[in-house]
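Subject: Protein record for review, amino acid sequence with backbone structure tokens
Why sent: The fold of this protein is of interest and is recorded here as tokens.
Notation: Tokens come from a learned vocabulary of local backbone shapes, not from coordinates.
Attached in line: The record itself begins immediately under this heading.
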Amino acid sequence: MDLNEQEALISRLREAVEQAKDAYAVARNEHDQAMARMKELGATHPDGSIVHATKAFNHTLERYRRALWRYNRYVLDGELPAEESQD
């Protein structure tokens, strides 16, 4: 792989990290808001937003973790790791 290809790959990996980070930040904010609503309404209120927000938060956190892992492995090892299975 020549230098231009390596730079392009690193750029794509960085972009994936940034997109995952942005999605995680949005989900974290929505989760925090849902938690605040739950505290206001009471833990037994049948509002399902906390379940949805928690699932979205966990999904985006895992996506961010994978993107960081792939970027770091490429920078440190010089090899692009295979994609992990997407559940």
The chain is about 80% helix and 0% strand. The two ends are 31 Å apart (CA to CA). Residues 20 and 64 are 5 Å apart (CA to CA).
